[in-house]
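Retro notes (design track)

What went well: tokenization of the new backbones is finally stable.
What didn't: we kept losing track of which sequence belonged to which structure.
Fix going forward: every design gets posted as structure first, then sequence, in one message. First example under the new rule, 408 residues:
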């Protein structure tokens, strides 16, 4: 007679965790939590912050253990952890088997603040604080035209439109991290225009190629030219964090406005009639575009509603040159011409206002409140909503570019 013995599976025993103390329902940037909990016979534990199913890398300091009693320190020092609702998770393990305890909390992150301004001149890169004090200065032995600073990655991007290439330097000590040689070689203009993003820089080459730099590397690239012909981007702006460009042949003909995703694949496009374009986003679906009509000698200020496919001229004016345009507030734009600084509101039938007769260029928006900054010669000013201009910074040398500095 054959005897058969049944085998029972050994039951999995999960470690126990209980009695969590020290956690809070409301946590602010800079807070330190001393967490205590009890867990039986575990060989390791982890503490993480959860954003839904996403695990946020979290550093904690084990402070004390006695038997089943544990004490750990959790410091909320991540400048880039945004305000919102999160979960605090403690995981305990024994022989590879885990258990966890989760508690929800609301977090108030570090608020974004301006801490100064950086000025790029033909002699040096200078850092000024909000009180107008020079905090640092780095001499330059090359001519750079464009400055982008990213505090998240602690990087400085310096780009030459001509033949000095691009240098990426460390924000703290200015040491060289990486460099990109001029793509078209010496004694040739390399870039037609550039576009700054929150953390990086688009470079639009004269041969139609586009590079996007972020975290110190080329993060994306694409060819948007015409094979065998000189076709390149002449103007660029951000539309809902996506790059938009106006490309044309060398003589300005066959102009086309295009919007790309962040991987540089085209999303929308439309042909344009006119030369010397300037462009700014009014919203995530609307753009203002200035074009020169050579046959009439008149500039047109145009409105493009992308998804609806609407395009039309809203205003015309006469000027020798147009230098820049930016969204100001609501449906209002500010643009700089050889006749001065102009303010115009779409759809309200009001006349264009001349704010100041001087030449302005290099418009930049402050991220904290969308205030508009402008360059006038070697001076940077802020345009207030009442049309007053307020001093922001100045250089004793030839000012080429500037960057508003933030705490994160």
């Amino acid at each position: 007679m054959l005897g058969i013995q049944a085998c029972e599976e050994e039951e999995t025993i999960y470690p126990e965790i209980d009695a969590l103390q020290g956690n809070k329902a409301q946590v602010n940037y800079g807070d330190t939590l001393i967490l205590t909990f009890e867990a039986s016979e575990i060989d390791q534990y982890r503490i993480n912050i959860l954003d839904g199913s996403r695990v946020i890398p979290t550093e904690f300091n084990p402070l004390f253990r006695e038997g089943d009693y544990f004490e750990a320190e959790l410091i909320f020092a991540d400048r880039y952890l945004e305000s919102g609702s999160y979960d605090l998770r403690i995981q305990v393990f024994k022989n590879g088997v885990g258990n966890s305890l989760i508690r929800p909390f609301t977090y108030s992150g570090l608020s974004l603040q301006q801490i100064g301004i950086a000025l790029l001149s033909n002699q040096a890169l200078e850092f000024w604080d909000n009180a107008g004090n020079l905090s640092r200065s780095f001499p330059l032995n090359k001519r750079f035209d464009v400055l982008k600073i990213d505090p998240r990655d602690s990087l400085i991007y310096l780009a030459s439109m001509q033949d000095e290439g691009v240098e990426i330097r460390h924000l703290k000590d200015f040491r060289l991290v990486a460099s990109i040689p001029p793509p078209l070689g010496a004694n040739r203009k390399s870039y037609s225009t550039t576009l700054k993003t929150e953390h990086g820089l688009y470079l639009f080459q004269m041969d139609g190629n586009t590079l996007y730099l972020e975290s110190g590397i080329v993060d994306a690239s694409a060819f948007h030219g015409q094979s065998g012909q000189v076709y390149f981007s002449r103007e660029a702006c951000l539309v809902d964090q996506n790059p938009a460009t106006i490309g044309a042949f060398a003589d300005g003909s066959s102009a086309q406005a295009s919007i790309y995703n962040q991987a540089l694949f085209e999303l929308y496009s439309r042909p344009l009639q006119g030369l010397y374009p300037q462009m700014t986003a009014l919203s995530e679906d609307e753009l203002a575009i200035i074009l020169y009509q050579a046959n009439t000698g008149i500039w047109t200020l145009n409105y493009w509603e992308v998804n609806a496919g609407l395009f039309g001229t809203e205003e015309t004016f006469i000027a020798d040159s147009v230098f820049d345009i930016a969204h100001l507030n609501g449906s209002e734009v500010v643009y700089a011409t050889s006749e001065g600084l102009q303010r115009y509101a779409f759809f309200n039938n009001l006349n264009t206002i001349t704010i100041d007769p001087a030449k302005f260029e290099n418009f930049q928006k402050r991220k904290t409140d969308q205030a508009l900054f402008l360059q006038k010669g070697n001076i940077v000013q802020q345009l207030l909503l009442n049309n007053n201009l307020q001093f922001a910074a100045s250089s004793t040398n030839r000012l080429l570019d500037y960057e508003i500095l933030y705490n994160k």
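Added context from the reviewer: The mean pLDDT is 95.
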